[in-house]
Amino acid sequence: MKTLSLALLGAGAALLSLALADQRPLQLKHDNVKRPNIVFILTDDQDLHLQSLDYQPFLQKHLIDRGTFFRRHYCTIAICCPSRVSLWTGKAAHNTNVTDVSPPYGGYPKFVSQGLNEDYLPVWLQAAGYNTYYTGKLFNSHNLENYASPYPAGFTGSDFLLDPHTYEYLNSTWQRNREQPISREGEYSTDILAEKAFGFLDDAVSEDNPFVLTIAPIAPHSNAKISEGNVSEEGGKHSFQMTAPIPAERHRNLFQDAHIPRTENFNPEKASSVSWIRSLPRQDEENVAYNDHFYRSRLRALQAVDEIIDGLISRLEEYDILQDTYIIYTSDNGYHIGQHRLQPGKECSFEEDINVPLIIRGPGVPEGEVADVVTSHTDLAPTFLKLLGVEPKEDFDGVAIPITRASIDQAKTGRHEHVNVEFWGYGIEEGDYVLKKPDFALHANNTYKALRLIGRGYNIHYSVWCNNEHELYNLEDDPYQMNNLLDPSEGHASDSSSSSLLGFPLLKVAARLDALLLVLKSCKRDECIHPWRVLHPAGNVNTLWDALDSVFDQFYVEEQAKVEFSRCEPGYILDAEGPKQALMYRDGLRWSEWV
């Protein structure tokens, strides 16, 4: 595959040399070559499967119609802070060790304590000669007490939302550069964000250096009031109240007839899935009506974000730099409302929670195209660097996303087909309706490892929960994940000769999926990109079809270790994670050493 910077900038384009070992500043070989800019828009909790993009006309006009929509893009952990850390570092959550939104397992303090404040994308971009600007939400638990200890590194200009008011649409607190925080009570958060984003764009254009501008609104996240303290391990105390998003006044009466798509998995008559999800009661009419209101509130809150897109395009055109600028739009994680009887929220591994929007517009990007290559948030940091002509870090768990027509076509047969998904901790219910309950709805034991595998003729979800329940869905026949093929109560059993998937015994397929998940749940670097090579170092297995060859049956079914947990934990506790390394197959014999 051609180096993307050459394809985009033409012959003689500048390549950058990244000094990984000593972090020396990156230098251009040809300083006279014009380098592209990036505007990155990162929404919060935006769904793909609930059709929110259909209600954003400016996004449709300026980005989807003029760029490429990657419809198989996934977050690798469905909660805000860990997902954002993975996005900015190019590493899976089990390698950043930021696995929650607040201490001890996550949040901004954990990000700092892991040494990541000196080793993430904004720092690398500045070393490459880029000016970097950021406004909006950075991380959870980035607050009025710790914003300066230390300041987030890597920004030419910054204006961050701070906890405990990050998610209050009408009571936000902002902290600019090295200045004291300022409260903007009574003003609409997304409109303030627009003002700051356009100001940073003006600043960026006035400088000689190319720039990366990140705009991170809270929409369409719930309106949340956060009090002191963290959620207790017992789940009996809650330190936040998450109610419906608040739209700008000008948008509050829009979409009166909109309602949650009534798909097969919406508030189903028959329960599905495993663990606490399967025990959820069916929602009554009052509950469904409230959730439709919650849904409309999300759509309305997104309208101010949509207006930012239109304002950005106009300004980029006025500055005559639109043709030199990539615009990337995504969300930290997805969202569910009513699917599988769930109240509003995320944290699950269903498609609604992990399959998120990704649209890219810019030089060389096909217009009005839909790409089916499998991509994830760990691929975004490598993508940023490649777009800007910077060599990737050696410790990335992801790989750059193809964005030209030729590279997308090549990726259809040459790119990996998996996404590694993981989660630790609680499932949290949001919305006014759950506040009526006598105890706040926190569901413990929502720790799991999951795998999405999408290839020629298969579309599979496989997961193992911390109580060692298993899920297996064939999304080719069951796109709404209603039929768990490993649910004994449904008459399914992995060791049943009558159960099959892809024309093979279910046991045979499940064993391959489990081994692949065993590699991915603890993988590092290239292991995360090419996990089949860990299992088959000879390089003769690169897809599930390859692995299903009968010559490997004994290796996978009888000899390979299995994914399992010794107990449920709210964070990444190694001795609870079960086997961490897979056996390698060599020359038809079991390889007797660990990888």
| Total beta strand runs | 24
Low-confidence segments, given as residue ranges, are 1-32, 229-238, 590-595
Strand order of the largest sheet: 7-6-5-4-8-1-11-12-2-13
Counted up, domains total: 2
- Overall spatial form: globular
CATH class of the largest domain: Alpha Beta
> Would you tell me the structural class of the helices and strands?
alpha/beta
CATH architecture heading of the largest domain? 3-Layer(aba) Sandwich
Number of helices: 18
Q: Can you identify the CATH superfamily of the largest domain?
A: Alkaline Phosphatase, subunit A
Say what the CATH topology of the largest domain is. Alkaline Phosphatase, subunit A
Overall helicity = 25-40%
Q: How large is the radius of gyration?
A: 23 Å
- Return the average pLDDT rounded to an integer: 90
Report the β-strand fraction as a percent range.
15-25%
InterPro entries: Alkaline_phosphatase_core_sf, Arylsulfatase, Sulfatase_CS, Sulfatase_N
Modified residues (3-oxoalanine (Cys)): 80
Family: Belongs to the sulfatase family.
Keywords: Glycoprotein, Hydrolase, Signal
Note down, in words, how this protein is organized:
By secondary structure, the chain is α/β, with parallel strands linked by helices. The chain has 2 domains: 34-63 and 92-352, Alkaline Phosphatase, subunit A (3-Layer(aba) Sandwich), CATH 3.40.720; 447-594, no CATH class. Helices cover 27% and strands 18% of the residues. It is built from 18 helices and 24 strands. The strands form 7 sheets. The protein has a 10-stranded mixed sheet with strand order 7-6-5-4-8-1-11-12-2-13, sandwiched between helices. Strands 15-18-19-20 form a 4-stranded antiparallel sheet, covered by helices on one side. A two-stranded parallel sheet has the order 3-14. β6 and β7 form a beta hairpin. α2 (57-64) packs across α9 (285-318) and α7 packs parallel to α9 (285-318). It is globular and about 65 Å long. The chain starts with a helix and ends with a strand. Residues 1-32, 229-238 and 590-595 have low confidence and may be disordered.
